[in-house]
Amino acid sequence: MDIPTLRDSWLSIEKVGDEAVLYFYSHLFMEHPEVRDMFPLSMTTQRGRFFAALGRIVSNVDCLATDAAFVQQLGRDHRKFRVVADHYPAAGASLLATMEYFLGAAWTDNLAATWAEAYRAVARIMVTAAEEEASAPAWWEAEVVATERRSIDVGVLRIRPNQPYSYNAGQSMAVQIPQRPRLWRYYTPANAPRPDGTLDLHVQIVAGGQVSATLARTVAVGDTLRLGAPIGTALTLSADFRGDLLMVAGGTGLAPMTALIEQLDERWRSTGEASNVYLFHGVRTQRNIYDHTFLSELAGNRPWLRYTPVVSDDPAYPGECGPVGTVVAKTHRWQGETALICGSTAMVEHAAGELRRAGLPASAIRFENFDGGHPDNPTSNTSGAPTEMAHQVTTWH
Ligand SMILES: Cc1cc2nc3c(=O)[nH]c(=O)nc-3n(C[C@H](O)[C@H](O)[C@H](O)COP(=O)(O)OP(=O)(O)OC[C@H]3O[C@@H](n4cnc5c(N)ncnc54)[C@H](O)[C@@H]3O)c2cc1C
Ligand code: HEM
User: Fold this and answer.
1) For ligand 2, mutation pick of 10, 21, 81, 369 (most atoms within 8 Å of CB)
2) DSSP label at 337?
3) How far is the CA of 355 from the centre of ligand 1 (A)?
4) Considering the entire predicted model, what is its pTM?
5) 186: which of 40, 122, 159, 342 lies 20 to 30 Å off by Cα?
6) Ligand 2 center–CA 73 separation, angstroms
7) What is the number of the ligand 1 atom nearest to the C-alpha of 206?
């Protein structure tokens, strides 16, 4: 398969932008009106996500040869949209029709055959993975059992899945709320798995956001949320992990860190084995430090945990001030810890850059960013982090 030509042709389509996205969806919904209901009613912010991912993943088909896990996970995760094998030729035909329309004379028979072959290879893996998972739920329902407004812009929800829901600390899952049908967004449990199965979500209200404000403000006790399967491996720790950790969180990027701290705490309480954890939580103003009481008390009782809130936009704050990445690089002397970073793309990009400049090797830095789509997507390095680091953490796990 001619991979460079495949990638080049996709780059040309990316340059077309919104017009190609619009063409793709119009083609898909006109030829297959039955799939329209799987997609959000209004697709303004989301519109490009599926199409962009589709082209990127198919044009990186060569990665499948070394590791297909990401695409398998994607296939299993598509069960929550009610996608089945019969739908794949429809999306493939619309993808190829869009390429043909915009590439004009550059769309040769050879190129068409290459794209068709690459699409079939990706689709086959997604379909097989989904079919192998057929006995597991396509989604889980979870009841909201408590809500709390934790700070001016963060709501905390406690939910209880109605069937066993198995995940690892540091993973996330897609969530759909009853008030916003078909608008799935990822959220991250802020706790390690509990015996009673409940999960806490930290939800930052994003101005103009379609889901976060309603989730944090309107969703109430007794409401039922829908959850996709747990996903993401960049921030998880294997059971035999024994190193120390430097955690750098921005806003609700704190959620996976508190889940991991709980996981380590459990090990410490049962075996006495501790990993040193240096947690830095970056927020804009003092009022945004939303888990201060809990974390300071915990750090007071755990010799292995140090917690430092960092405020970026208020020089009068009587603690650490500045962008969290800069403060970490300035105040923390790296001693071989693994660095975990989580927050917005801008925050992750900045913190990763500062840590690299402070001498951390790429292999010591792992990250997840909250603005992207499906975690672990090896073809989207939206964080802008150094390429070798992106390869290190977003391999096809
Ligand atoms: C793997 C993963 C895990 C996540 N976990 C959490 C979590 O635990 N807690 C949490 O609060 N969020 C989390 N997010 C972000 C979450 O999925 C949503 O993107 C966020 O809640 C905004 O959704 P929305 O529908 O309100 O905004 P949208 O309607 O999707 O977006 C509205 C506008 O806001 C912009 N925008 C989107 N997200 C942000 C942001 N974070 N900051 C600033 N601008 C933004 C968009 O670009 C758009 O212009 C996670 C994201 C990923 C990919
Ligand atoms: C090779 C085939 C496919 C690939 C690589 C692919 C990839 C993706 C990716 C990466 C996303 C974004 C997920 C996220 O960010 O959470 C997505 C979303 C989606 N996909 Fe697919 N997909 C494929 C086939 C299909 C098919 C056949 C259908 C059904 C016709 C479908 C329906 C959807 C829907 C409904 C969404 C959500 C869109 C939204 O929220 O706006 N996909 N897909």
Assistant:
1) 81
2) P
3) 24
4) 0.91
5) 122
6) 12
7) 26
Closest residue by Cα to residue 154 from 267, 43, 287, 21? 287
DSSP state of 187: E
Sorted by sequence, the CB contacts under 8 Å of residue 375 that are 6+ apart come out as 172, 186, 231, 232, 233, 234, 368
Structure tokens at 238: 């294997």
Q: How far is CA 17 from CA 13, 23, 42, 130, in A?
A: 7, 10, 18, 30
Ligand 2 interacting residues, C-beta cut-off 6 A: 35, 38-40, 43, 46, 49-50, 53-54, 57, 74, 78, 81, 83, 87-88, 90-91, 119, 122-123, 126, 174, 184, 373-374
Give the pLDDT of the chain (397 residues) as one tens digit per residue. Answer: 788 999 999 999 999 988 999 999 999 999 999 999 999 887 665 667 788 888 888 888 888 777 788 899 889 999 999 999 999 999 999 999 999 999 999 999 999 999 999 999 999 999 999 999 999 899 999 999 999 999 999 999 999 999 999 999 999 999 999 999 999 999 999 999 999 999 999 999 999 899 999 999 999 999 999 999 998 889 999 988 999 999 999 999 999 999 999 999 999 999 999 999 999 999 999 999 999 999 999 999 999 999 999 999 999 999 999 999 999 999 999 999 999 999 999 999 999 999 999 999 999 999 998 876 666 555 544 333 333 333 222 222 1
Task: Compute the distance from residue 386 Cα to the ligand 1 centre, in Å.
Answer: 23
Among candidate residues 247, 190, 178, the one with its CA nearest the CA of residue 215: 178
- Amino acid in position 151: S
